[in-house]
Amino acid sequence: MLKVLLSRLGQAALVMLVVSAVSFVMFRYVGDPVATMSRENASVEEKAELRRSLGLDQPLIVQYGRFLGRTLRGDLGISYRNQRPVTELIAERLPATLELVLVATILSLALGIPLGVLCALKPDGAAARLVQALSLVGISTPTFVTGIVLILVFAVSLGWLPSFGRGQVIDLGWWSTGLLTASGLKSLLLPGITLALYQLTLIMRLVRAEMIDVLSSDYIRFAKARGLPKRYIHFRLALRNALMPVITVTGLQIGSLIAFAIVTETVFQWPGMGLLFIQAVSFVDIPVMAAYLLFVGLLFVLINTVVDILYAVVDPRLRARSA
């Protein structure tokens, strides 16, 4: 087990090194921050001084070495746009994104699993066919279209829910939350539903496929032959085994939700990390863009590492294979 753990941690460190190099190099070619930050009539000398103060006059390998050293110390640099440490900006925006992802994950699991079970137990029923048809619409509709339609219906036409912003929030130390106020909860609904829709349809279709596969297995037929209750067979035997890949996909999707909440946060002007990244792109704020990519990469690496380790704990065959 120790060998598996050390192997996964070594792979995670290597991946993060590659991600840091990619994030550093890629954003050096999206624009010139000096041109964005300089005043309109700035002289060549002023631009050269600004470039020197930002460290952009150094060779690329020197810049990367300094960037890597600062990153290992937890220093992600200073935002060109806000003139504040990037870690402070991420700490301010992270709670909003995590709460949005939490709501989207809860909605997708609470609705996706029961709907998947329904479609698996009665695949030819009218309800199952309707759910599958709607899932096709949900999985193929772009996120920004879903968000705009929800705003048009529930915010503009009906006036039930706010169309933008986070509502009233409460500060709990460095963490700010809207889950403890009525306006915060109302503000979470539309972006949460928008973000959850794709994951909901994915989980529903995955549960349906896994349940159908498990229900056709030999041990389920043996359980039916023994006369065990249908409820026990469906929910204690079949569903528990069908949920294993669902747990894996859900864990990986949490990372995807955080990474790709950019569109949802932009549509609803949600003050999270996705909106911060979009603003950084428009201003060529390289430290913020690089830090965002590093954070997303670290998140995926951590999730994959935890999933691999849990699989090794659950399945002894993986431990034996790695020995």
UniProtKB/TrEMBL annotation:
CDD domains: TM_PBP2. One of its GO terms (biological process) is transmembrane transport. Residues 94-311 form the ABC transmembrane type-1 domain. Keywords: Cell membrane, Membrane, Transmembrane, Transmembrane helix, Transport. The keyword Glycoprotein does not apply. Gene3D superfamilies: MetI-like. PROSITE patterns: ABC_TM1. InterPro entries: BPD_transp_1_N (IPR045621), MetI-like (IPR000515), MetI-like_sf (IPR035906). It is a multi-pass membrane protein. The keyword Translocase does not apply. It is found in: Cell membrane. GO terms for cellular component: plasma membrane. The chain crosses the membrane at residues 12-31, 100-121, 133-160, 172-198, 242-270, 290-314. Belongs to the binding-protein-dependent transport system permease family. This is Peptide/nickel transport system permease protein. It comes from Microvirga flocculans. The lineage of its organism: Bacteria, Pseudomonadati, Pseudomonadota, Alphaproteobacteria, Hyphomicrobiales.
